[in-house]
Structure to design on (411 residues):
């Protein structure tokens, strides 16, 4: 077997694994599959360690790591638990409660790593909703959907936006100007669709339970808020984002009450490893020339993804098969010279597309798994019932925004 054939076989197997999510019969998830793929390429000599080092986009991983540390600051301070408890303890009806969940999840996810936001909030939200006698499922869909939609607003809202922003050299404020409005609209769509489709579950009064607020550290929360403000302020200066982010994150580790081991342990190392492995696999595939030939064929057939007619369905399909993070890593590897407008479109549409199905984004999977650990089953059909319409509506409105605003050509 030639090296090119081997790399192609490993590449196909890797992304098939991304689509399945795990290997049947084995407890092997996406990260494990990607790691095994890299090991196979190294063992057969198809790539070497030096090639992996060149393939990995270190600035992206450094910035993602820094943002995870920043979000971990809030998690360790008990801020996310407090938010969830305040929401479920609010003296409002179920519909207003749903609105609070969507708004808080989306707002926090716009400036913090959305995966950590939903990871931290889901258990407390489940406990509070069950104490009020409410069905947690529509609120969990609102949590995941609002988090995904809100994270689309900024270049640091989610892992795929971070990658696109770093590789494409996109400006934070210009990105915000393009993506904030459709992201906010998408949050409203999430609220309205869930409210309508789960109206029976939201019709009950939801009796108030005695409010017991979790312990939280005001000083450490204020410290995290100051660090977030400083990070955003740095985006106004000609300082590499990853350098500024890592510097601020490192300062957060200097604490008398929160151990650095605990903070670093809260980082999603599985996601960082998944990124690194997929960088290596896709770079090896791009090096075979097969991807370039395939893209040339697509361009000849007017199927180039720099138009909305191609980008929107491509983002929807890839995000809900292999996942939006692997999809963006793949596209950025084989399409390194994408125009700025296409990068905005890819970030916005791939993020919104993640709301279609539970498998569409890591945030959805995290919510479902954390809910299951709390005794609440959020099934595939439960999520799809609201996920499909809210995604199609939000993506349609986003396409109109991008097209009418001249960000991307229609076709």
């Amino acid at each position: 077997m030639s090296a090119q054939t081997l790399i192609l076989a490993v590449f196909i197997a890797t992304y098939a694994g991304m689509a399945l999510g795990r290997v049947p019969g084995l407890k092997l998830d996406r990260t494990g599959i990607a790691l095994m793929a890299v090991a196979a390429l190294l063992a057969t000599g198809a790539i070497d360690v030096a090639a992996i080092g060149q393939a990995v986009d270190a600035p992206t991983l450094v910035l993602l790591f820094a943002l995870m540390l920043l979000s971990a600051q809030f998690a360790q301070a008990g801020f996310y638990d407090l938010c969830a408890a305040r929401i479920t303890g609010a003296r409002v009806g179920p519909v207003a409660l749903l609105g609070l969940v969507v708004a808080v999840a989306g707002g926090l996810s716009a400036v913090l790593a959305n995966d950590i936001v939903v990871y931290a909030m889901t258990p407390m939200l489940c406990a509070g909703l069950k104490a009020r006698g409410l069905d947690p499922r529509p609120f969990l869909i609102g949590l995941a959907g609002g988090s995904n939609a809100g994270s689309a607003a900024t270049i640091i809202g989610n892992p795929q936006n971070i990658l696109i922003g770093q590789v494409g050299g996109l400006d934070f404020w210009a990105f915000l100007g393009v993506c904030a409005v459709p992201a906010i609209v998408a949050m409203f769509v999430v609220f309205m669709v869930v409210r309508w489709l789960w109206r029976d579950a939201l019709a009950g009064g939801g009796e108030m339970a005695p409010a017991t607020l979790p312990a939280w550290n005001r000083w450490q929360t204020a410290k995290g808020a100051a660090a977030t403000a400083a990070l955003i302020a740095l985006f106004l200066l000609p300082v590499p984002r990853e350098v500024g982010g890592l510097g601020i994150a490192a300062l957060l580790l200097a604490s008398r009450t929160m151990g650095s081991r605990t903070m670093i342990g809260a980082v999603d190392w599985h996601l960082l490893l998944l990124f690194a492995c997929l960088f290596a696999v896709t770079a090896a595939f791009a090096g075979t020339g097969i991807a370039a030939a395939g893209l040339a064929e697509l361009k000849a057939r007017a199927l180039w993804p720099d138009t909305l007619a191609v980008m929107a369905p491509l983002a929807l399909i890839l995000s809900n098969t292999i996942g939006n993070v692997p999809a963006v890593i793949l596209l950025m590897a084989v399409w390194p010279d994408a125009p700025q407008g296409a990068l905005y479109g890819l970030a916005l549409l791939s993020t919104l597309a993640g709301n279609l199905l539970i498998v569409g984004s890591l945030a959805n999977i995290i919510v479902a798994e954390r809910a299951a650990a709390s005794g609440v089953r959020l099934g595939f059909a439960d999520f799809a019932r609201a996920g499909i319409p809210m995604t199609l509506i939000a993506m349609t409105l986003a396409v109109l925004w991008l097209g009418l605003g001249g960000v991307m050509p229609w076709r």
In short: Residues 137 and 382 are 8 Å apart (CA to CA).
